[in-house]
Amino acid sequence: MFVMGTRWDLAPHPLPKPFFSHICGTCKATTYTEKEFPEDATVICNVCASAASEQADAATNTLFVWDVPPDLLGRLIREAQVKGIPPENYIIGFLE
Question: What was the pLDDT predicted at 1?
Answer without folding.
Answer: 67
